Amino acid sequence: MSPADPDGPADPAASEPTETLLGVAPQLRALRRRASLTLEAAAASAGLSPAHLSRLETGNRQPSLPMLLTLARVYGTTVSELLGETPAERQSVIRSAASEPNLAGGWTYRQAGGTGRGMQALRVQVPYGAQGDIVRVHPGEEWLYALSGRLRLRLADTAYVLEPGDSAHFDSATPHRIAAADPEGAELLFVHTLLQSPVEALCLGGGTHARTTGGTR
Question: How many Cα atoms are found within 13 Å in the side-chain-facing hemisphere of 111?
């Protein structure tokens, strides 16, 4: 099953549109049109079925973070813009009070870096059981820093548990999975860079042909 191909088991969290998602849905449609892509062309580039992308654009299906990463890459934008955020360009200081939380696939995250840069930085809240079965593979490098709670990280065939204060730095072409290790959840800092892409095409996540596939822990 492809990452984004939705025609596998449905995520219970995706069954009910939320207020956040209903706000994201029109933005997904508007940015696809801005990129001059038909529903079919965009879906093919993102590894989605047209029907699934249509459900995302109408708020009837919840986009996971990997889906948002891939769509941002396809549309030549950032996850922040997909979510309707409009921080000042090239800002150097990100105030905590101005960083609005956003939901994607059960994860809550806040922008921790400016736009238009060679790195994307997020502060991410990872609930227990959310996205732990999603395998990510995409260009670039990732750096994670565990702020609170314990994180379960799998890189290829090796599993790690990160305690608060631990960090990990790896090539994100390595298949990887991230999950909270304990029911209390975890929080982390996440920094990503796409070394193969021009700055104007950078986003937090995989390239046009990146794949994120479901699996078992």
Answer: 28
